[in-house]
């Protein structure tokens, strides 16, 4: 039984929305990353590139997997010690970043530097997602959103370089 491509795409978009993340939220991160390097860059340009990244099956698979794990952690349905690791977003866990790197890889090595920077400074929606309130778990989601933004920023950088 194969997975319907449209179902996977729609599910990934729905999950982002259910978790409070919009395309514009991610677009603002892209603008943050690229505004100093691309004169005249608009939020709509950034949103368009986010949409392009979200069309990639690897990205959709990562979104669906990561958010499902966050939800299971919120519901207390994981085995110990994974339950505690995800609930507390332990710093040395690292699997959340490894999954995010699968998204970053889609548009080349510039994505690594974009991702590392945005993961460190946590602007915009990333700051909100990184709050550990004991109710909502975003262990995977914050890294996934940062990686989508980094990939979209890389896509823009490649397009600008190609235009030169």
UniProtKB/TrEMBL annotation:
Single Gene Ontology MF annotation: phosphatidylglycerophosphatase activity
Q: Which GO terms describe its biological process?
A: lipid metabolic process
Residue span(s) of domain YutG/PgpA: 22-158
What is the species of this protein?
A: Vagococcus fessus
The protein, known as = Phosphatidylglycerophosphatase A
Lineage: superkingdom = Bacteria
Q: Which Gene3D superfamilies match?
A: PgpA-like
- Pfam families per the record? PgpA
